[in-house]
Amino acid sequence: MNKKEVVIINSTGGSPYHGPNFRSYYTGKNLLLLGYEVTIIANSYFHKFYNTPLLKGTLTNEVIDGINYIWIKTKKYQTRGFFQVLNQIQFTLKLYKNFHKMGLKDATVFIVSSPVPFSIFPVIFYSKIWNIKVIFEIRDLWPLVLQELGNFSKWHPYMYLLKKTEKFAYLNSDHLVSVKPGDFEYIRQRYNVSKDKFSYIPNGFDFSIKPIKVLPVDMRESIPKNKFIVGYTGSLSIAYGIIYLLKAARELKNEGIHFIIIGSGPEKQDLINFVEKNKLLNVSFLGHLELSIVTKLIEYFDVCFLGYRKAGWLQYGISSNKLFGYMHSAKPIIAAMDTKYDLITKGKCGFTVSSEDPYEIETAIKRMYKLPKNQRDELGENGKRYLLKHHSFEQIAEKYSKLFNKLYK
């Protein structure tokens, strides 16, 4: 393979300077080290960005740490839902209209990262003209995840459109990559895709992330002394079932156990209301914090919590940044989830219990509380070793490079 230019089309692709999602950035950064040129085509607006790019027109080129970003200008949306979908469609239409102007016809490979999946249509169109291989990267099983979280009918117009897009992507791409090992089972059952068309390339962790050296005084004082700390970091959305952790906290309010919740999201006020209604003095909410502060705060946790609501898509595995953050901090983990691909058990780094079961969560916390510290430390170190062995972006880039060579044999 002589050509060495990788183009990643990710409408939610961010950077450390703009905000998540980061997989494309860190994969691209490590592909640079392998001698590839990397271009990321991304949406100028995504609701998770904390800094939006400075735009100079419909297409804006920006070099970020050696990666050529092309930002496609789209309208901002104030509320999610209908206007967010319009933004996704606008990105796809502008991608189709301007793709031939981006100087990509000599690329080695196109990687379309989903969600959002609609970019696959213009990319497949141009790939056929230019004879370039296409990889469809699955970060979430849309529409399955959205259907279950939002309780949508499969005949909902957006769900129907996503289903048709999913089928087109799986059948017309040259190769499929997923961050979860079980996704092949889902794809094979529904679309009869052969095993040699699928690769599992997991999500990764950026090991350059460092905690701040010292927490601010007020934050240190918010952490109770001489208490066993159960911590959660991440989005406070319905998907993660934090209410069941708080129900366990209610039963443990007279124990020497304190719960710290870091993050924000649509469920936050309901969770705060539950704590106030039940007068739970053993629960603290610290809000959304910078990653360097979160990483430092995890050092104060005795155990970290990862939870999910009951959902069919969980059976195919999880890919959780918060899980990797916990592992990197060498902390034992309690996970409430129902999956056949359990990284907690595989990594021997904690206990897994059923989703939406406060009693099982409570029991696991008590069990962890009673464990000698050296045994909890051993669980944490197991997780860190597992992370280092399987989830570095250096390894991910190498797996992609091997796949590129395989596609062009």
Structural write-up:
The protein is an alpha/beta fold and 409 residues long. It has 2 domains: 216 residues, Glycogen Phosphorylase B (Rossmann fold, 3-Layer(aba) Sandwich); 174 residues, Rossmann fold. It has 15 helices and 14 strands. Strand 13, helix 12 and strand 14 form a beta-alpha-beta unit. Helix 8 packs across helix 13 and helix 11 crosses helix 14. The radius of gyration is 22 Å and the shape is globular.
Detail the topology: elements first, then pairings.
Blueprint lengths: L4 E5 L13 H11 L3 E7 L15 E6 L2 E6 L9 H17 L10 E6 L5 H11 L2 E6 L5 H7 L6 H16 L2 E4 L4 H9 L6 E3 L16 H5 L6 E6 L8 H10 L5 E6 L5 H10 L5 E5 L3 H8 L4 E5 L13 H8 L4 E4 L6 H4 L3 E4 L4 H13 L2 H18 L2 H15 L2
Parallel strand pairs: 1-2, 1-5, 2-4, 5-6, 6-7, 7-8, 9-10, 9-12, 10-11, 12-13, 13-14
Antiparallel strand pairs: 3-4
Q: Say which CATH homologous superfamily of the largest domain is assigned.
A: Glycogen Phosphorylase B
Contiguous runs where pLDDT drops below 50 for at least 5 residues? none
Content-based structural category: alpha/beta
Number of helices: 15
The proportion of residues forming helix, as a percent range, comes to 25-40%
How many strands, what sense, and barrel or not for the largest sheet? Answer: 8 strands, mixed
Output the keywords.
409 residues; alpha/beta; Rossmann fold; eight-stranded mixed sheet; six-stranded parallel sheet
Question: Would you kindly provide a brief summary of this structure?
Answer:
By secondary structure, the protein is of the alpha/beta class.
